[in-house]
Amino acid sequence: MNTQSVSTVAGAVSPATKVSLSFLASIWSASAIAVSMGVYAVFQYYSTPGSAVMDLFLKHLWHVLVLGIMIYVLLWFILKKVLLKPIQRIHLHLYKVSTGRIEPLELETNVQELDTIVKGINFLVGRMGEGVPDQEIAAIREAVMKLHDTAPSETQEILEHLSRLNEMMVAPSRKSPHGAGTPEKSW
Asked: Which residue among 35, 77, 117, 171 has the highest number of C-beta atoms inside a 10 angstrom radius?
């Protein structure tokens, strides 16, 4: 089975269509209720002789609609709060890291998978910060400045290299992955 058919089966959408996680979970839950109610209606039809098919259909349709709408709304609010907002914060933090703001992500969550992602980001950011420390660049610049009186042209070249290195460390990328400006908001 190729990737396209797997994503179509798992998400019930074509690969080009993007939908929110809360929408998918809500639709799948409502569908599960509809199928369950259908199975129960068939069981009830055979276990209660003389039941009219249309009466059972209307009775169970009402249950399916009410429960489906309630579950859809509840799941949408819960998933938005518990998953989608933290994911949006993670996305914005990674955008800041890509523009040179190398700082840990402060996000408290009870969701294990999100906590694992936050720990991974903080490990990555910590490792990025272990590059050449600013104090080392300052110490090299100070040592070069002491030599500047004896060999000004050679020290000037070293200072230019240090400035470029410092600039590369401070702002590795000013470009947004989504074009100019801030990252794309998809939810």
From this structure: 117
